[in-house]
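Provenance

Sequences were taken from public entries as deposited. Structures were produced by running a predictor on each sequence independently, with no templates supplied. The record for tRNA modification GTPase MnmE from Duncaniella dubosii is shown for reference.
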Amino acid sequence: MYQQLDSDTICAISTPSGVGGIAIIRVSGPEAFNIVDTIWRGRKLSEVTSHTAHLGDIIDPENEEEPLDTAVATVFRAPRSFTGENVVEISVHGSKWIQRELLNLLIRRGCRMAEAGEFTRRAFANGRLDLAQAEAVADVIAASSRSAHRLAASQMRGDFSKHISELRDQLIEIASLLELELDFSEEDVEFASRQHLKNLAEQLLTRISSLVSSFSTGSALKEGVPVAIIGEPNAGKSTLLNLLLNDNRAIVSDIPGTTRDTIEDTMEIDGVLYRFIDTAGIRETADAVENLGIERSYTAISKARIVIWLVTPDMPQERFQTFRKSIAAHLPEGSNLIVAVNKIDTLHSSVCNRPINLVNGDSVGIDSTDDAMKDEKHVNENFTTKTFGVSSMNPSFALFTESTSTTDTPLLYISASTGLNISSLLKQLHRYSGADESGNADLIVTNARHYEALTHAKLSLIRVIDGINTGLSGDFIAQDLRETIHHLSSITGTITTDDLLKTIFERFCIGK
Ligand code: GDP
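Predicted structure for tRNA modification GTPase MnmE:
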């Protein structure tokens, strides 16, 4: 059962379970200093100044001869602590036995074992953090890439909350004008010009709508940007995936998907976490049932924010067009397609040792020596930044340039087996990840609960504007405005319920 006894003094291990160099046991509550003092041989913690660290021994009063450990106690006095209460953080040597014994000792001396997220919930209850900031604590702890960290840290500092509060204050201002009018309804006065109200409401709607639509970027950056690599058998999908993952081996991990045969590989490139969808499918042998392969690709596309479609230079034009249409039809809104012509190293021997005319009239001779091909910059310039002219190309290869040049889809020329031009592919991934938009972290929504609340706020604000447009009476408009304010308030926790708090803090681990 969820307890609300903030008068208890609670304790928990705040470092990960297992053996480490040190472990930290956190104690918080009115009796924190007194309880720890009963097992502490060193300076009396109830008398030392706040924010100081002290070396001492942990003693079991029933067995004083044999100290449990030599430890460091850091003291934070209420209200200048994370929870807003008296807090002692005891750093002990990381043995599991010491950790367990210290916890037992603290509980015997009057502490209660903390519940999941209870330290953070107390911080919220004591006004140290608002609800969005408290949720961001969990996100900061879980962040696994620079961009995810940047968003979470900004939210934890309160930037996002400040933005929401500003919106809320403006809504309250509109509402109070309307309410005032209602108080004087007998006298038929109009305190708030309808046009003025409408302008304000529309401005707020624009801001709320842009927060709502930022969620797809925000959640992708937080959870990992979903990327699908698709293409026909032998296009080089698994070669590309392995190249990307091997180059970034240090941070590669396998995340089990929702079904047993789905595996997702993740990696961080240039501060952004990418999640490769259905890598089990990519790694399947080419003799997999053709239909299943295609179905799988469409499923992967439907979940992706970025789709890398690998084609080979010899793909017939008709086939390319057919696939392109069907990929476009399956591409979710807001996602991006990169068409990568793979195996350009094979092209090299057949066409690259003669001059290629570029559309803008430049003429670049591509050297066939290995040194020149290894020079990625040289190849980047030749292959990616310009569209090839049709005339001088290998006929089938030229068809690609012709067929894609009318769309915005960037066409990259790569070699997954030699790594040529992969840096351009990575740049394109970064551009489409949305990471650059996240500079204004306070304007990006990363939390599904906030997204839901903002979506509701948006709907009720639209009703407000409709009401003004149709000349609805003030009390109906005021009702919708109150609803909008309610939804925004629920984000920062100005309005909240026990159930909501329970759901939020239960997701935390014990010790946080
Ligand atoms: P998938 O079926 O799409 O996963 O294709 P694979 O990655 O298994 O590649 C099929 C074949 O093409 C393998 O023999 C690869 O070594 C080869 N291959 C992949 N990429 C390249 C490339 O850039 N250049 C060349 N020459 N061969 C490649």
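The pocket of guanosine-5'-diphosphate is lined by residues 231, 233-239, 286, 342-343, 345-346, 415-417 (CB under 6 Å).
Residues 373 and 379 are 7 Å apart (CA to CA).
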